[in-house]
Amino acid sequence: MPEGQVSHRNALLLTRAIAGRPLVRVHVAEPRLAPQRIDERLTGDVLQDMQARGKHHLFRFRSGRVLHSHLRMNGTWRAYDARADIPSRGLWLALATDDAVVAQYRGPDIRLVEPGEPIPRIDALGPDLLADDAVPADIGLRLVGIEPSREVGEAIMDQRVMSGIGNVYKSETLFLAGVDPWRAVGTLTPEEAGAIGEIGAELLATGVRDRGRIRTYRPPLGAARADTRTWVYGRRGRPCRRCGAPVRSRGQGDANRTTYWCPDCQR
Ligand SMILES: [Zn+2]
Questions:
Q1: Interval between CA 167 and ligand 1 midpoint (Å)
Q2: 32 is in which domain, residue-wise?
Q3: Under DSSP, is residue 245 helix (H, G, I), strand (E, B) or coil?
Q4: How many CA within 13 A on the CB side of residue 70?
Q5: pLDDT (tens digit, 9 = 90+) per residue, 207-246?
Q6: pLDDT band at 11 (very low <50, low <70, confident <90, very high)
Q7: What CATH number corresponds to the domain at position 225?
Q8: 166 with 228, same domain?
Q9: Is 170 a residue of the active site?
Q10: Which residues pair with residue 94 across a beta bridge?
């Protein structure tokens, strides 16, 4: 699943790959995109800059058009050399200059916006935990300013509150912060809310992706091989790495995304 740190790395890679050079070829591979005629509208245009916020990617072109992509669960963007054979499986869209190709896989939300048209949702996004000028503790404090009855585990995934935390980092952040995901945000102290922002930003910045899995836990030297490289995520029923109590899991929020937590370490 793409989470914040991936989109930032991607923003750099994708921008370096194709910015400043005209698109010589725009290939629409996914039939659902065909009605937008993205190939006709973008061929010859030049990428000026590209921005990633949470799972949103915005490509701004010289014509004033903006390509907006939201990755949801499985979408991804990749950059390739122009001479490479790019994988066709899952391909939705490819933008090629003479030097490089950036390719979008598994969609699912892609829209080419004409100059002056509103870009959906992006204006309502909360601050990005990985932005250069981000103050993560202040971003965490935004939690205490929202509807007090909402559960913490749902609120930290709300891209209007803070941008970047996906389902894995939700469970991992709240475990390390010692905060029960089922608490109402109205019960958070400012210290707890600030710590959630700081820990989330730290995890996003240092999380390692290994064969598609996020690693946030490193077993101590000499320890037995870990079942997973996470503190609680994906560890239902296994002993908590701190206290040994069985890790629990349950669907949370309107989207019923699974939350993992330790009932003893998280209060
Ligand atoms: Zn525990």
A1: 19
A2: 4-123
A3: coil
A4: 10
A5: 776 666 788 998 888 887 777 889 999 999 999 999 999 9
A6: confident
A7: 1.10.8.50
A8: yes
A9: no
A10: 27, 103
